[in-house]
Amino acid sequence: MVKPKTEEEIALLRENAILVSKTLAEVGKIVAPGVTTLELNRVAETFIRDNGAIPSFLGYEGFPAALCLSVNDVVVHGFPSDYVLKEGDVVSVDCGTLYKGYNGDSAYTFPVGEVDAKTRKLLDVTKESLYKGIEKAVAGNRTGDIGYAVQSYAESFGFSVVRELEGHGLGKEMHEQPGVPNYGRPGRGTHLVDGMVICIEPMINAGGRGVYLDRNGWAVHTSDRANSAHYELTVVVRHGKAEQLSTFDFIEKDSTIRYK
Ligand code: MG
Ligand code: MG
After folding, report:
1. From 8, 127, 140, 202, which residue has the greatest number of CB atoms within 10 Å?
2. What single DSSP character describes residue 191?
3. Distance set, CA 183 to CA 123, 141, 213, 252 (Å)
4. How far is the CA of 216 from the centre of ligand 1 (A)?
5. Model confidence over 47-102: pLDDT tens digits?
6. In order of start, what are the domains of the chain with their CATH numbers?
7. Which ligand is nearest to the CA of 108?
8. 47: CA distance to ligand 1 center in Å?
Protein backbone atom coordinates (compact mmCIF):
# COMPACT_ATOMS: atom_id res chain seq x y z
CA MET A 1 0.00 0.00 0.00
CA VAL A 2 1.43 3.36 -1.06
CA LYS A 3 0.90 6.07 1.51
CA PRO A 4 -0.71 9.24 0.12
CA LYS A 5 0.97 12.58 0.82
CA THR A 6 -0.37 15.06 3.33
CA GLU A 7 -1.49 18.48 2.08
CA GLU A 8 1.62 19.97 3.74
CA GLU A 9 3.83 17.63 1.75
CA ILE A 10 1.88 18.35 -1.43
CA ALA A 11 2.45 22.09 -0.90
CA LEU A 12 6.23 21.49 -0.79
CA LEU A 13 6.07 19.24 -3.84
CA ARG A 14 4.09 21.98 -5.62
CA GLU A 15 6.90 24.49 -4.92
CA ASN A 16 9.40 22.10 -6.44
CA ALA A 17 7.13 21.41 -9.40
CA ILE A 18 6.84 25.11 -10.19
CA LEU A 19 10.60 25.59 -9.94
CA VAL A 20 11.25 22.65 -12.26
CA SER A 21 8.64 23.98 -14.69
CA LYS A 22 10.28 27.40 -14.74
CA THR A 23 13.72 25.85 -15.16
CA LEU A 24 12.57 23.94 -18.24
CA ALA A 25 11.30 27.22 -19.67
CA GLU A 26 14.65 28.92 -18.98
CA VAL A 27 16.37 26.12 -20.88
CA GLY A 28 13.81 26.37 -23.69
CA LYS A 29 14.70 30.01 -24.23
CA ILE A 30 18.19 29.10 -25.43
CA VAL A 31 17.51 25.86 -27.32
CA ALA A 32 18.68 26.67 -30.85
CA PRO A 33 21.05 25.44 -33.53
CA GLY A 34 24.64 26.13 -32.46
CA VAL A 35 24.11 25.70 -28.72
CA THR A 36 25.84 22.88 -26.83
CA THR A 37 23.97 20.69 -24.39
CA LEU A 38 26.53 21.71 -21.75
CA GLU A 39 25.23 25.27 -22.10
CA LEU A 40 21.68 24.07 -21.47
CA ASN A 41 22.89 22.30 -18.34
CA ARG A 42 24.70 25.41 -17.12
CA VAL A 43 21.59 27.59 -17.50
CA ALA A 44 19.49 25.09 -15.56
CA GLU A 45 21.96 24.58 -12.74
CA THR A 46 22.42 28.33 -12.27
CA PHE A 47 18.67 28.95 -12.25
CA ILE A 48 17.98 26.16 -9.76
CA ARG A 49 20.72 27.32 -7.37
CA ASP A 50 19.70 30.99 -7.73
CA ASN A 51 16.28 29.90 -6.46
CA GLY A 52 17.79 28.30 -3.37
CA ALA A 53 17.32 24.72 -4.52
CA ILE A 54 19.65 21.85 -5.35
CA PRO A 55 19.79 20.15 -8.76
CA SER A 56 18.80 16.69 -7.53
CA PHE A 57 20.10 14.74 -10.54
CA LEU A 58 23.67 15.91 -9.92
CA GLY A 59 25.38 13.05 -8.11
CA TYR A 60 22.26 10.85 -8.09
CA GLU A 61 23.71 7.35 -8.26
CA GLY A 62 26.73 9.07 -9.79
CA PHE A 63 24.91 11.03 -12.52
CA PRO A 64 27.31 13.83 -13.54
CA ALA A 65 24.98 16.76 -14.29
CA ALA A 66 21.95 18.84 -13.33
CA LEU A 67 19.98 17.82 -16.41
CA CYS A 68 19.50 14.69 -18.44
CA LEU A 69 19.88 15.93 -22.03
CA SER A 70 18.91 13.32 -24.56
CA VAL A 71 19.31 14.15 -28.24
CA ASN A 72 17.50 12.36 -31.11
CA ASP A 73 17.92 8.58 -30.67
CA VAL A 74 18.77 8.96 -26.98
CA VAL A 75 15.58 8.18 -25.07
CA VAL A 76 16.61 9.39 -21.61
CA HIS A 77 19.60 9.87 -19.26
CA GLY A 78 21.92 11.53 -21.78
CA PHE A 79 24.89 13.45 -20.42
CA PRO A 80 25.39 17.11 -21.28
CA SER A 81 28.37 17.39 -23.63
CA ASP A 82 30.09 19.64 -26.15
CA TYR A 83 27.68 18.29 -28.79
CA VAL A 84 26.39 21.26 -30.77
CA LEU A 85 22.64 21.14 -31.42
CA LYS A 86 21.75 21.41 -35.07
CA GLU A 87 18.62 22.25 -37.05
CA GLY A 88 16.24 19.28 -37.06
CA ASP A 89 17.46 17.72 -33.79
CA VAL A 90 15.20 17.06 -30.83
CA VAL A 91 16.48 17.37 -27.27
CA SER A 92 14.73 15.92 -24.25
CA VAL A 93 15.39 18.03 -21.17
CA ASP A 94 14.74 16.22 -17.89
CA CYS A 95 15.13 18.29 -14.73
CA GLY A 96 15.02 17.56 -11.02
CA THR A 97 15.13 19.77 -7.96
CA LEU A 98 15.49 19.22 -4.24
CA TYR A 99 14.00 22.04 -2.18
CA LYS A 100 12.84 22.05 1.45
CA GLY A 101 13.43 18.31 1.59
CA TYR A 102 11.15 17.40 -1.33
CA ASN A 103 11.68 16.68 -5.02
CA GLY A 104 10.64 18.10 -8.35
CA ASP A 105 10.93 16.13 -11.59
CA SER A 106 9.63 17.01 -15.06
CA ALA A 107 10.76 16.81 -18.67
CA TYR A 108 10.08 18.39 -22.05
CA THR A 109 11.35 17.55 -25.52
CA PHE A 110 12.23 20.59 -27.61
CA PRO A 111 12.62 20.65 -31.36
CA VAL A 112 15.79 22.44 -32.50
CA GLY A 113 14.75 24.79 -35.26
CA GLU A 114 12.53 23.14 -37.83
CA VAL A 115 12.08 19.39 -37.55
CA ASP A 116 10.63 17.05 -40.16
CA ALA A 117 6.91 16.26 -40.12
CA LYS A 118 7.25 12.81 -38.58
CA THR A 119 9.37 14.15 -35.74
CA ARG A 120 6.91 16.99 -35.12
CA LYS A 121 4.16 14.38 -34.94
CA LEU A 122 6.22 12.29 -32.51
CA LEU A 123 6.56 15.26 -30.17
CA ASP A 124 2.87 16.16 -30.35
CA VAL A 125 1.69 12.58 -29.85
CA THR A 126 4.07 11.92 -26.96
CA LYS A 127 2.95 15.04 -25.13
CA GLU A 128 -0.71 14.26 -25.78
CA SER A 129 -0.19 10.68 -24.55
CA LEU A 130 1.01 12.17 -21.26
CA TYR A 131 -2.22 14.16 -20.96
CA LYS A 132 -4.21 11.01 -21.79
CA GLY A 133 -2.41 9.34 -18.89
CA ILE A 134 -3.08 12.26 -16.54
CA GLU A 135 -6.81 11.96 -17.31
CA LYS A 136 -6.68 8.48 -15.77
CA ALA A 137 -4.73 9.52 -12.65
CA VAL A 138 -7.85 9.65 -10.51
CA ALA A 139 -8.72 7.96 -7.24
CA GLY A 140 -10.26 4.54 -7.80
CA ASN A 141 -8.28 3.85 -10.98
CA ARG A 142 -5.12 1.78 -11.16
CA THR A 143 -1.71 2.38 -12.73
CA GLY A 144 -2.70 0.08 -15.59
CA ASP A 145 -5.41 2.56 -16.57
CA ILE A 146 -2.73 5.23 -17.00
CA GLY A 147 -0.41 2.92 -18.91
CA TYR A 148 -3.16 1.73 -21.19
CA ALA A 149 -4.21 5.30 -22.00
CA VAL A 150 -0.64 6.30 -22.89
CA GLN A 151 0.09 3.16 -24.88
CA SER A 152 -3.14 2.97 -26.86
CA TYR A 153 -2.88 6.63 -27.86
CA ALA A 154 0.79 6.49 -28.91
CA GLU A 155 0.47 3.20 -30.74
CA SER A 156 -2.57 4.40 -32.69
CA PHE A 157 -0.14 6.69 -34.56
CA GLY A 158 2.30 3.86 -35.28
CA PHE A 159 4.75 4.90 -32.58
CA SER A 160 6.06 2.56 -29.88
CA VAL A 161 6.34 2.69 -26.12
CA VAL A 162 9.62 2.14 -24.28
CA ARG A 163 8.91 -0.43 -21.57
CA GLU A 164 12.22 -0.61 -19.74
CA LEU A 165 11.61 2.68 -17.92
CA GLU A 166 8.55 4.08 -16.20
CA GLY A 167 7.06 6.88 -14.15
CA HIS A 168 7.07 6.81 -10.34
CA GLY A 169 5.90 8.23 -7.08
CA LEU A 170 7.58 11.45 -5.91
CA GLY A 171 8.22 12.82 -2.44
CA LYS A 172 11.26 13.04 -0.20
CA GLU A 173 12.80 10.56 -2.63
CA MET A 174 12.98 11.14 -6.36
CA HIS A 175 11.78 7.64 -7.12
CA GLU A 176 9.09 6.27 -4.84
CA GLN A 177 6.37 3.70 -5.23
CA PRO A 178 4.28 3.14 -7.23
CA GLY A 179 5.96 2.49 -10.55
CA VAL A 180 3.85 4.00 -13.34
CA PRO A 181 4.43 2.06 -16.59
CA ASN A 182 3.56 3.63 -19.93
CA TYR A 183 1.87 0.48 -21.10
CA GLY A 184 -0.59 -1.85 -19.46
CA ARG A 185 -4.11 -3.06 -19.13
CA PRO A 186 -7.06 -1.24 -17.61
CA GLY A 187 -7.93 -2.39 -14.11
CA ARG A 188 -4.45 -3.78 -13.41
CA GLY A 189 -1.58 -2.46 -11.34
CA THR A 190 -1.39 -0.36 -8.20
CA HIS A 191 -4.60 1.21 -6.87
CA LEU A 192 -4.57 5.00 -7.07
CA VAL A 193 -5.54 6.82 -3.91
CA ASP A 194 -6.40 10.49 -3.31
CA GLY A 195 -3.22 12.38 -2.37
CA MET A 196 -0.72 10.11 -4.12
CA VAL A 197 1.86 12.16 -5.98
CA ILE A 198 3.16 10.57 -9.16
CA CYS A 199 5.28 11.46 -12.17
CA ILE A 200 3.91 10.25 -15.49
CA GLU A 201 6.59 10.21 -18.19
CA PRO A 202 5.94 8.55 -21.53
CA MET A 203 9.03 7.71 -23.59
CA ILE A 204 7.82 7.14 -27.13
CA ASN A 205 9.87 6.01 -30.13
CA ALA A 206 9.28 6.93 -33.76
CA GLY A 207 10.42 3.43 -34.74
CA GLY A 208 10.53 0.18 -32.79
CA ARG A 209 10.35 -0.01 -29.02
CA GLY A 210 13.75 -1.67 -28.59
CA VAL A 211 16.42 0.17 -26.61
CA TYR A 212 19.97 -0.47 -25.43
CA LEU A 213 22.17 0.99 -22.73
CA ASP A 214 25.13 3.12 -23.78
CA ARG A 215 28.64 2.03 -22.80
CA ASN A 216 28.63 4.94 -20.33
CA GLY A 217 26.06 2.99 -18.29
CA TRP A 218 23.44 5.75 -18.43
CA ALA A 219 22.18 6.89 -21.81
CA VAL A 220 19.36 4.76 -23.23
CA HIS A 221 19.33 4.64 -27.06
CA THR A 222 16.74 3.36 -29.51
CA SER A 223 18.01 0.15 -31.10
CA ASP A 224 17.04 1.29 -34.60
CA ARG A 225 18.48 4.79 -34.07
CA ALA A 226 15.10 6.40 -34.75
CA ASN A 227 14.14 9.48 -32.73
CA SER A 228 12.54 9.25 -29.30
CA ALA A 229 10.53 11.79 -27.28
CA HIS A 230 9.95 12.16 -23.54
CA TYR A 231 7.59 14.40 -21.57
CA GLU A 232 7.02 14.26 -17.83
CA LEU A 233 4.68 15.99 -15.41
CA THR A 234 3.97 15.59 -11.70
CA VAL A 235 0.35 15.21 -10.61
CA VAL A 236 -1.62 14.56 -7.45
CA VAL A 237 -4.18 11.77 -7.69
CA ARG A 238 -7.53 13.27 -6.74
CA HIS A 239 -11.16 12.26 -6.86
CA GLY A 240 -12.65 13.02 -10.26
CA LYS A 241 -9.66 14.82 -11.79
CA ALA A 242 -5.91 14.80 -11.18
CA GLU A 243 -4.28 17.98 -9.92
CA GLN A 244 -1.30 18.96 -12.03
CA LEU A 245 1.65 20.22 -9.97
CA SER A 246 4.16 20.88 -12.73
CA THR A 247 3.15 22.56 -15.97
CA PHE A 248 4.38 23.35 -19.47
CA ASP A 249 2.65 26.73 -19.38
CA PHE A 250 5.91 28.60 -18.69
CA ILE A 251 7.29 27.07 -21.89
CA GLU A 252 4.27 27.25 -24.11
CA LYS A 253 2.90 30.63 -23.06
CA ASP A 254 6.26 32.40 -23.28
CA SER A 255 6.51 34.14 -26.64
CA THR A 256 10.31 34.38 -26.32
CA ILE A 257 10.58 30.62 -26.76
CA ARG A 258 10.61 30.14 -30.49
CA TYR A 259 10.44 26.39 -30.68
CA LYS A 260 7.97 24.32 -28.71
MG1 MG B 1 12.44 13.22 -14.91
MG1 MG C 1 10.83 10.98 -13.38
Report:
1. 202
2. B
3. 18, 15, 20, 27
4. 19
5. 999 999 999 999 999 999 999 999 999 999 999 999 999 999 999 999 999 999 99
6. 7-252 (3.90.230.10)
7. 1
8. 17
